[in-house]
Amino acid sequence: MAVFRKIGILTSGGDAPGMNACVKAVVNKALSMGIEVVGIIGGYAGLIKGELMPLTHNSVNNIVGMGGTFLYSSRCPEFMTEEGMQTAVETCKKNQIDALVCIGGDGTFRGATDMTFHGIPSIGLPGTIDNDVTATDYTIGLDTSINTTVQIIDNLRDTCESHARLNVVEVMGRGCGQIALYAAIASGAVAVAIPEVPFDEAAAIEKIRKLRNNGKRSMIVVVSEGVFNPDGTPYSETLAKKIAKETGVETKFMRTAHVVRGGKPTMRDRTTATQMAVKAVELLVEGKSNVVMCELDGEIVALDIAFALILDRMYKNKLKPGDLDKFTPEQIEEMKTLSAKRTAELQRLYKVATDVSF
Ligand code: ADP
């Protein structure tokens, strides 16, 4: 059992709906265990600058349903230097911060690991709309961002139906096509392009032609922002132009962009965030750190951050020589199982999206 007087909490990297629910739960759970909580303003940058805010039950009143992050977020390259790291550690020592809860994505977890190795035990919570943390089935913010995406597409659908148009919609998800797949399924898209699966452009264009000839007025094509042309420009706009040219169907283009990061978190994001946060505080107090909270088959579990980061590389086929050296054969087997599970899930969703796309 670790004796903590005070823990710090920060949100870092891209914001996600549900981060505030995490903060509220960490604060209220820790206070109920007699542990003080201090908010670090603007992610790791706040730790370097010493921008802190004591948090009480009252300071987190009414934030469970707020979008964005009331602790603010940033990207802080300085934190990745040894000097920046030392300053961050000094801030913790000077302010008696004994442990940290760091909410964000992969980069944020790397920071949490560094802090742990510099003597400040830290735990990560997965707050990112892309669902791109391979170790967990679910990242906080995904559900809200998909619902917002679907609402936008529903609106586009109305006007597409009125005017017999097609709309290509570029959605968020740089390295992970899950937002695109769920949005395509939930909005009845006729085609979907994601980074993980090669897109058959000719087949999609032929299908659109046939559907129009068959009397279909409105059509939606969903493209993930992570799909690029060979020259690195976004594929979504190129596809829209090609569809218009080759099918004669009036085609509009829309990029949902950051509008789907904001907004009030859904029940799913609020409740998952809360459960992960409560468990994170309990684990810290039990003396566990350097883990990321994950949801696996409906259960909240903690996985080692190093395990999670290397698993991510395995899933993306980006393993470097020596990456697996410090893991046991059982851990490597577990990584392979989780990696295969992600691939199977993606393929299953892709098949569902294409099976119903008429
Ligand atoms: P996300 O957490 O959403 O993946 P970033 O990759 O931008 O977002 O990371 C957020 C912050 O985490 C960075 O600005 C930096 O301060 C810190 N960070 C990222 N990578 C590392 C690293 N390798 N070591 C230490 N800190 C890191």
CATH architecture call of the largest domain:
3-Layer(aba) Sandwich
The count of helical stretches stands at 11
Report the CATH C-level class of the largest domain.
Alpha Beta
- Judged by helices, strands and strand pairing, the structural class is alpha/beta
Taken together, the total number of domains comes to 2
Overall pLDDT score: 97
Query: What sequence of helices (H) and strands (E) makes up the elements?
Result: EHEHEHEHEHEHEHEHEHEEHH
Strand residue percentage: 15-25%
* Ligands bound to this protein structure: adenosine-5'-diphosphate
User: Largest sheet at a glance?
Assistant: 7 strands, mixed
Strand order of the largest sheet: 3-2-1-4-5-10-11
- Total strands: the figure is 11
CATH topology-level fold name of the largest domain: Rossmann fold
| Radius of gyration based on Cα positions | 22 Å
Helical content band? 40-55%
Descriptive account of the structure:
The chain is of the alpha/beta class. The chain folds into 2 domains: 6-141 and 265-318, Rossmann fold (3-Layer(aba) Sandwich); 143-262 and 345-355, 3-Layer(aba) Sandwich (Rossmann fold). 45% of the residues lie in helices and 16% in strands. It has 11 helices and 11 strands. Helix 1 links the parallel strand 1 (6-11) and strand 2 (36-40). The structure holds adenosine-5'-diphosphate (ADP). Adenosine-5'-diphosphate is lined by residues 12-14, 44, 75-76, 79-80, 104-108, 110-111, 114, 128.
